[in-house]
Amino acid sequence: MQTPTNWISIAQRIQAISQTGIAYAQSAYDIERYKELSEIAAALIAGPEPLTVALAKELFAAEAGYATPKVDVRGAVFQNGRVLLVRESQDGGWTFPGGWAEVGQSAAESVEREVREESGYLVKAVKLLACWDRNKHAHPAIQFHAYKLLFLCEILGGAPMVSSETTAVGFFAEDEIPPLSTTRTLAEQVRFAFASLRDPAAPSVFD
């Protein structure tokens, strides 16, 4: 049974308190209590499956320091009025090319790299279209709180090419969008990208 989204948000917050507490706690007693909170958060997110709980604990253990949302960057790339999508090898759904922003790169540099790696196209980020709070949209739950940045990108060169994370690359009209990888991209977000293409003067949006 899938954990309700509101419980996911609660678990994410508990984990954030735990992670930040461990980073700043002075006493061994406090550290142990914060570690216990992390285990509670893992159990809330994972549900009753022991293996999934263990995986959640492992993911949380890799996080350290003050807890902040992760940043997911996505590129809206158009050619002849059609949007570039890639098919994810993980779940077989289609998505805007993108992924987690890299340390040492700006968000724009990160999305340009992700588009190149996942699709084969060289692009330049030209406008930030949206900054969405992932928890406020109908994505399936994940362990971490994340912000999603959608950039309008222009093609500079390259050619379609799959990667270790993608199995197909294509351009799609607004009325022919294939089944999406909803963990990464929602239909409403694709529609938003097309609306932004039709109205270049529209401001960036945020939650």
Please, could you describe this protein's structure?
The protein is an alpha+beta fold and about 210 residues long. It folds into two domains: about 5-60; about 70-205, Nucleoside Triphosphate Pyrophosphohydrolase, CATH 3.90.79. It is about 35% helix and about 30% strand. It is built from five helices and eight strands, in the order αααββββαβββαβ. Strands 1, 2, 3, 4, 5, 6, 7 and 8 form an eight-stranded mixed β-sheet that branches. α1 (about 5-25) packs antiparallel against α2 and α2 (about 30-45) crosses α3. The mean pLDDT is about 90.
Relative strand content: 25-35%
Q: Percent helix among the residues?
A: 25-40%
Cα(first) to Cα(last) distance is 29 Å
What CATH architecture of the largest domain do you see?
Alpha-Beta Complex
Total strands: the figure is 8
Gyration radius (Cα, Å) is 19 Å
How many individual helices?
5
CATH class of the largest domain: Alpha Beta
Unreliable residue runs: none
Biggest beta-sheet profile? 8 strands, mixed
Q: Domains counted in the coordinates: how many?
A: 2
Which structural class matches the secondary elements?
alpha+beta
Kindly report the name of the CATH homologous superfamily of the largest domain: Nucleoside Triphosphate Pyrophosphohydrolase
CATH topology of the largest domain: Nucleoside Triphosphate Pyrophosphohydrolase
Gross geometry: elongated
Q: Mean pLDDT, rounded to whole units?
A: 88
- Please provide the ordered H/E string of secondary-structure elements: HHHEEEEHEEEHE
